[in-house]
Structures are given as C-alpha cells and as structure tokens.
Amino acid sequence: MSYLQMNPLRKDFPVIDQVIKGKRLCYLDSAATTLKPIMVIDEIDKYYRSETSNVHRGLYWLSENATFKFEETRDKIASLINSPHRSQVIFTKGTTEAVNLVAQSYGRSFFKKGDVILLSQMEHHSNIVPWQMIAEEVGAIIKMIPINEKGEIILDEYKKLLKDNVKFVSVVYVSNALGTINPAKEMIKLAHEKGAKVFIDAAQAVSHLKVDVMDLDADFLAFSGHKMFGPTGVGVLYGKKELLENMPPYQGGGDMIDVVTFEKTTYNNLPHKFEAGTPPIASVIALGKAVDYLLQVGFQKIHNIETELLEYGTKKLSSIPGLRIYGEAENKTSVISFGIDGIHPHDLASLIDKEGVAIRTGHHCTQPLMKFFKVTATCRASFSIYNNQEDIDQLYVSLLKIKTFFE
Predict the structure, then answer these.
(1) Residues 365, 368, 390, 400: which is the catalytic one?
(2) Where are the domains positioned within the chain?
(3) pLDDT at residue 210 above 70?
C-alpha cells in the first residue's frame, strides 16, 4: 500500500488538520518534536480532569491509580526497548537530562585525568557539552570521531581512535541534522573490545526504529518522549544494572532516599535512586499511551511510510536548481537537510512559513557539523507517519516560488 496519496494515520493527529495564515498546514519539523495523537492528548486531559494525585505516597484510590499507571509506563518502556528489568528504566526530563545524569554521576565517579571520551562529529550539543564539563572537571580528554561528505561516521578512523586510554564513547544513533543512522551495534562492540563503555543518544531513533538494548549491548541509552508522539518534559534513561547500582544519585530529594538522618542518608533502590522529587506524572502516564500508539502502528509500517516520504521528497527537492542536500548516507531516516544558493536559510524559513510550511532552520544544535559542511545553517524538512505526498508537493512548490522571488 502506498501512503503517499492517502495516509489514514493523519486523522489521529488533530493539530495537522488546520489552516494557518490562510494556508493548509504542512508540518515538516518532526525531528524537533512530533505531533501528538488523540489518545495521548486524551490521557493527559483525563489525568488532570479526573485523576490528579501524587504517586508512590498515598494509600487512597486516586494515588494508587496514578501510581499504577505511572509504573505501567515503566513496564511498557522496558518491553519496548527490551530492557532486562524494569528497574533499569529511569524517568528523566528528556535526553538532555539523561546525558547530564550519566556525565555527572558516572563520569565524576569513574573518569580520571588522561582518560579519553570519544564523540562523533555529528553530535547534538546536548551530547557534547555535558562531557566537556565533566572532562574539564576531572582532566579527561575529548576526541572527535570524523565523518565523510555523505554524513557517515568513518569506521576505520573510529577504530584507530579506540586506544587503551579510551574509557567512554557517546554517540548518536540517528542524526537530528542529517538523518544518518549510525552503526551503533558495531560501534558498541568495537568499544567493548577495548574496555570502553558506550552511551547511545536514541532521541531521533526511537520513533523510527525498533531499539533493542540487549541486541545493541548498550551500556546507557536515552530518548525523549516528545520525539516519539508523547508529551514534552519526560524522557528515559536506560542503563546496565551493575553500572547504575554503582553510580551515586544525581540529585537529592524525596523518593530517592531510604533513611534520612542528619548524620547520614541511605538511598533507595533502582530506579527510584535517580528519580528525586515529584515526577511529571501526567507526562509519564501519557508516554505510556505514546508507546501503545507506536506499537499499534508498528515499526514495519512506520518504516514503509517514512521510506516512501524520504524517497519522494529527495527526488522532488533534488530537481530544484541550486539546491544542495546535506547528508546523503546510505542508511538514513526521513530527514532532508538542504540549502539553496543565494538564499539564507533564515530568510527561506520566514518566507516559506507564509506558504503554510513549517520547517526548521539554523545549526540544529550541531555547530561542529555545520562547520564540517562549511555552512552556518541549513534548512531541515523532517517527515513522520502523518505526512503525505501533498506535504512534499507543498514544500516543493513553495521553494520554487521563493527561489523565483530571489532571482
């Protein structure tokens, strides 16, 4: 079945069915955040309308119900990513907090002066800056894994960098700026052969691919709810149990304690040791519905839809004179980053908005990657399961119109 002409999933996303500035909304910024299906929106409304209460504390029905739904989401996430145990699923504010948690807790405990941390040239700033902060604190060294002109990690160069002093590798599974799918499993295996631990940023992967932490053998892996049809303000950190158990708490507060005295405090077991304070309860519960939706659609169907969109979009945009696509990896998801000769990306974004088209422009929090391609910014169209051929055609016609304006 072709999803380009008729995409029945569109009806599940109420945001998309509207007119903005007199134009049909064409939402092509799913790499920044995905739209939310009705079942996720309804779950948030239900919690605040009729089920509001705190979790893990009350013995009354509202609290017990909220706690059940909250912890049910943990089970759903554990199943989704094939975690060996639910206690290895830790709720965070998102991928960024998860990176910071591991950098500060694991890094401060186990990194020492002269240790090397490897990061790829295509990393998001949130997977660079936290490692820089801890490296500066303990005297560790950060080295860069280079990429080629297609936007692919050069595995031979990665292998050369894997010396005995490399203690940690942190790499993105799917590039937010290019759509490149990195060979995460192979990179983890190579790092483990040298005794290094690996963190996988799966923020852009989890809504496109079946992420299996056991198959990957990832030491740590993180993602954000809002990039997988769930709410903002919630994410997940997965870690191997022995690593998490040996890491000190990232924050202190309620729920992460066992016994508190003024002389000494002992800490709760996993996962609660890393979940201080009142969590984003509604968001966690609704994230469970997002998992339900993902599984209801199915990853094969997601792949089929996004492959059609990427192939059609690449063909259409490539036919525009003066347009260059950045990131042409052999293995990539539904992201097309591009620039048009003579038009600044910010000007293009402002003008295309008047045509009802929502795309992202800028450095996409990947300034080292922009430097590699010798640009300050790109335009990025990112597709998801609710897009169709009409969206791509609207983008294409709008780009031609803007290009004519500048000629």
Answers:
(1) 365
(2) 8-28+298-406, 42-295
(3) yes
